[in-house]
Fold this sequence. Notes:
Helices cover 2% and strands 41% of the residues. The chain has two helices and 29 strands. It has helices at 116-119, 359-362, and strands at residues 5-10, 14-20, 26-27, 47-53, 59-64, 71-75, 79-84, 87-94, 107-112, 121-127, 133-140, 147-158, 170-172, 178-181, 204-208, 234-237, 242-247, 254-258, 264-270, 284-285, 288-289, 305-308, 315-320, 332-337, 343-347, 353-357, 369-374, 380-384, 387-393. The strands form seven sheets. An eight-stranded mixed β-sheet has the order 4-29-28-27-5-6-7-8, with no helix packed on it. A four-stranded antiparallel β-sheet has the order 9-10-11-12, with no helix packed on it. It has a four-stranded antiparallel β-sheet with strand order 13-14-15-16, with no helix packed on it. The N and C termini lie far apart (41 Å). Residues 258, 266, 279-281, 284, 303 line the site of one calcium ion. One calcium ion is lined by residues 258, 266, 279-281, 284, 303.
Amino acid sequence: MTRSRALITTGAVALAVAAVAIGASDGPPSATTAAGSTARETATAGYRLVRVSGGLGDTLFLTAAPGRTTLYAVQKSGRIRVLRNGRPGAVFLDVRSQVSGGGEQGLLGLAFHPGFARNRRFFVNFTDRSGDTRIVEYRANARRTRAVPSTARTVMTIDQPYENHNGGMIAFGPDRKLYIGTGDGGSGGDPQNRAQNLSSPLGKILRIDVDARRPYAIPGNNPFRTTRGARAEVWHYGLRNPWRFSFDRVRGDLWIGDVGQGEVEEVDFVRRGAKGLNFGWNAFEGRRSYGGALRAGSRPTMPVAQYTHAKGVSITGGYVYRGRSIPALRGRYLFADWGTGRVWSIGAGPRPRGLREETARLGRTVVGATTFGEDAKGELYIVANGTLYRFARR
Ligand SMILES: [Ca+2]
Ligand SMILES: [Ca+2]
């Protein structure tokens, strides 16, 4: 059975990210798992998850604009809403008429330019009516309360061979370049071996410069810029469907949650500035051999953490906690499983270590966790089944 991340809208707003059996029945898992408590884990440690509000509908990303306290909720069906007291308020952007709405399709990503306060630029990632990936730039109005539709400018279009595995994360790195996570294109098992093929933009993390030239320039130090037959945008490769990556706001390291095929969910780690890494898919699923051929002459970078489908279904990568309110979580990368709602953390640093499950300490699971969110102060949130939670001191 093949599994992938799917985003399934049921009814008007309910969102589910399903373990999909491709070619079989698609749907959310029928059972949830209770908090993964063990004898060593107690609820006495100093943090918990506080429910902030419900009503976030099909929100699958949450972020703040640089220097602003406002949180923005990205909704799969095509709108970005400004959160007011944790609830969706004013519409910042509406591209509902432009997006496709299949299981893993829709409005999938948002990145504010680091200079947003001055230049009002931001970028979105969505699948268009043809099912292809589009990165589009907009500018906000002078008060920065909503996008100006007439400023839309397509930065990049990526043909999608299948409906699933569209990646979707976009984020500016500490180097002010725009990073774009693409899935392997879809189906199951990466049948055309795109993730290991540098001539395909799929199964990659791409890196572009949106300041030097329009629509974008290739940064001079991209690793495959002069490699024959390679897409010059490629920064890392060998990914299956990176459902959320993030940069450690203190160290600048890159963390990737890569959704597994049928058995293994993984966390990948890249020290700041390292480039051209091959994360192994589809030769490896996690640390297990999967059977595909590695790109000739390359070596795989193995995950720094993984778990099997005994404990989860589909990883949702998070952030390194760099907020002030929870000392016990400071400097730890948090991630969750969409299907079972378990939460884990691992210590950030030059060599990540100390993987531990946090579910029991948090006192609850977060089944349906579509995304983490990091606010301007580095405090962290989770959105699960349309409900917003905040990590808080106990
Ligand atoms: Ca696809
Ligand atoms: Ca891998």
